[in-house]
Amino acid sequence: MPITSKYTDQQVEDILAEVAAVLDKHGASAELSLMIAGNIATNVLNQNVAPSQRQAIAEKFSKALISSLETKDQH
Known InterPro entries for this protein (predicted)? Predict the structure, then answer.
């Protein structure tokens, strides 16, 4: 069953393009970009999610991240 989102692809792509432009402007390496992404995720969880739900949502997020990766086996 496909995952549906309440956000349009265009909304996601527009924000992603802006974030990518900021990282590019600062010459952020892959390592720094991932550190920033991780810090953003942590801040969002800590500031917007009830403490009792943080662990579960972080686990779902990490599983979604892993499942979205392209691997050699998928080619």
Answer: UPF0352, YejL_sf
